[in-house]
């Protein structure tokens, strides 16, 4: 299938006959009608056939038969979302536009089924005790608790697979045999898995120092194994690369609503009064992209949490960035979270093979 979607772009003054030639010649089977690169219509051979049946001449402008309200999608949507949209609307082609409605591409259902492989390694932290979820975690590590019909860790891995990632490192400590016996080397799941066992918990940053010297030199994605999310990991990685970041932290917008009037002042003097204010902060989402140079710089077997690692590297002059995520995200750390996850999993579309 051709990937040169520009070849099917035409203007509204083009004849129906010329539009039909474009549709027949190019494998995409559509023509996109633009005005100053703004999408104003779409034409398929079905539109041409209907026009002919209504007596429209082939020499007439394509504007007489085009669909003036075609379904389009914003360029920010993930392949998963594009696929769902096309399936729900029963369409095979979907024009892609930017925030100004300028045409920037064309996706087909076939495109969404072809996943580009990513060589970037994924490091999943799965060694915690899950104390707050006892007694569920008495004999099962938290990431292996089932949400829906699969362990959380399998759902997380499937989400990465859907974005082309296949090389995984899993950090273990508590009940490691449960994880190893289930996943093995990953071959049955179509992936590669190496296990990094922490004899003593080293913190998220410290665990990075245990990764093997054979680690691929591409930026690594690191994530806590108890997170349920629809984040498009490819976009996080692309942001990290395009911004030449050394370490990128995914963050979420978090609101705190104060139910009282807040009084500000100096000493006894009132300087301002704010009625029931809302404060907004960015909080750590437990998803990171770490460049290879940082991993190589870490001392072996020393405890280090991730916020401290970011602070250290920032003071060293390295580029540390935040990437706000707006997609579904849930840290399954408490019983209430676990109950919510059991409901949410069936509406997220990520609990698949």
UniProtKB/TrEMBL annotation:
Q: Which UniProt keywords apply?
A: CBS domain
Using the record for this protein, list the coiled-coil segments as residue ranges, or answer none.
none
What Pfam families has UniProt attached to this entry?
A: CBS, NTP_transferase
**Which InterPro entries does this entry report, sorted A to Z?**
CBS_dom (IPR000644), CBS_dom_sf (IPR046342), Mannose-1P_guanyltransferase (IPR050486), NTP_transferase_dom (IPR005835), Nucleotide-diphossugar_trans (IPR029044)
Q: Which domain of life is it from?
A: Bacteria
| SUPFAM superfamilies, per database record | CBS-domain pair, Nucleotide-diphospho-sugar transferases
Q: Where is the CBS domain?
A: 1-58, 66-122
What's the name of the protein? Answer: Nucleotidyltransferase family protein
């Amino acid at each position: 299938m051709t990937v040169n979607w520009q070849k099917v772009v035409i203007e509204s003054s083009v004849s129906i006959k010329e539009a039909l030639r474009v549709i027949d010649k190019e494998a995409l089977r559509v023509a996109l009608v633009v005005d100053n690169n703004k999408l104003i219509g779409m034409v398929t051979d079905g539109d041409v056939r209907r026009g002919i049946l209504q007596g429209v001449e082939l020499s007439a402008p394509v504007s007489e038969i085009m669909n003036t309200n075609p379904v389009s999608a914003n360029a920010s949507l993930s392949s998963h979302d594009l696929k769902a949209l096309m399936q729900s609307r029963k369409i095979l082609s979907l024009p892609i536009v930017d925030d100004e409605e300028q045409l920037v591409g064309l996706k087909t259902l076939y495109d969404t089924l072809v996943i580009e492989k990513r060589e970037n390694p994924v490091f999943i932290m799965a060694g915690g005790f899950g104390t707050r979820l006892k007694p569920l975690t008495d004999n099962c590590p938290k990431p292996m608790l089932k949400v829906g019909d699969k362990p959380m860790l399998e759902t997380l891995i499937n989400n990465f697979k859907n974005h082309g990632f296949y090389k995984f490192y899993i950090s273990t400590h508590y009940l490691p045999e449960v994880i190893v016996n289930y996943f093995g080397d990953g071959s049955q799941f179509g992936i590669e898995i190496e296990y990094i066992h922490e004899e003593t918990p080293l913190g998220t940053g410290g665990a990075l120092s245990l990764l093997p010297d054979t680690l691929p030199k591409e930026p690594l994605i690191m994530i806590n194994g108890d997170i349920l999310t629809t984040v498009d990991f490819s976009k996080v990685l692309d942001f990290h690369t395009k911004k030449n970041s050394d370490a990128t932290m995914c963050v979420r917008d978090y609101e705190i609503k104060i139910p009282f009037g807040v009084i500000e002042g100096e000493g006894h003097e009132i300087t301002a009064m704010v009625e029931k204010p809302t404060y907004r902060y960015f909080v750590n989402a437990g998803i990171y992209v770490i460049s290879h140079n940082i991993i190589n710089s870490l001392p072996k077997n020393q405890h280090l949490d991730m916020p401290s690692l970011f602070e250290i590297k920032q003071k060293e002059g390295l580029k540390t960035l935040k990437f706000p995520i707006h997609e579904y995200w849930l840290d399954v750390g408490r019983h209430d979270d676990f109950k919510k996850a059991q409901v949410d999993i069936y509406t997220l579309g990520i609990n698949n093979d």
